Amino acid sequence: MSTQYTLVETAPARLTSISSRPKNEAQNPSWGPYLELTRFSKPAGLLGAYFPYFIGFLYSVNLTNPTALSAADWVKLSAIFLLDGLILRSFGCAWNDTVDQDLDRQVERCKKRPLARGAITTSNALATTLILAVARHVLYYATLPARAGQHALLTTILALTYPFMKRFCNFPQLCLGVGVGWAVFLVDAAVVDGPYAAGSAAKLNAQDRSKAMIAMFACQTLFNITYDTVYAFQDIQDDLKAGVGSLAVAVRHHPKVFLLSIASAMAAFLWATVSCGGLMRGPFQAGAAVSSLAALVMLARLNVWDPRSCRDFFVHSQWWVSGVLVIGLVGELLMANF
What we know:
70% of the residues lie in helices and 0% in strands. By secondary structure, the chain is mainly α. It is globular, with a radius of gyration of 21 Å.
């Protein structure tokens, strides 16, 4: 017998000042709340931010010249992308919590966040956000080509925009999905414009390569939208009461239809990455097949009204979709090199 849920809807959220704070706000917080603010205390969420970097990196190298990078190049670029993924996630979380502190106090899962409970001052949270934002752009300026830094600037702008969208519309997940998925273009610029591919014969012409990268961007964006919409269902009861917008709110009457449709589109673009990229040796094809099937099966079995089921989907889908794609792309590189 299925469980029935009553959704209580209210008027849209009123935009409030980010400086609004509880009376018991701390003046001299310890380091603990800062680790919470930046999510360093919850490293599992880094998977969602970093996988698009590494998938885009592996895919771009496969399209350019699978034998061009030395072991030192692989270590250097992987470390830079991992560090940026960590900084971007922490910056985004700190900024989101700063803007959303008044709304977070109305959501059961979020009301114990450091800003919402008054463990950090708003000014200190803003300073933390600024330091992280500057740090990632210094990192790119010091280590990667200019075009990669330009792509990084766009993702910073999208991260700054994201928390405001939930106050005015139900599509913040679109902003987040595009921002996270844009890592595909960022890492491709680092590979194409860097010294690693200099003098090497590209596998694809510019037009075909562009199609392949757009397909991979669409695939990653749609997957990000899928898992973040599922994640948003954890808070849908509180969000409706507070007037917070999300795709979960928008599709609450037919969630499975929406999620399975998005996942199907993701699978279609994933197969376009196989075709447009000319990766026909077998490993990436197998990875695409397993990833597509896993996403659809997990969504078919998902109970969006069970918060634990939503959390489990977020973690498991990272490995069964993105993790499997990484294995397939690594397999392509190994076959090309050996």
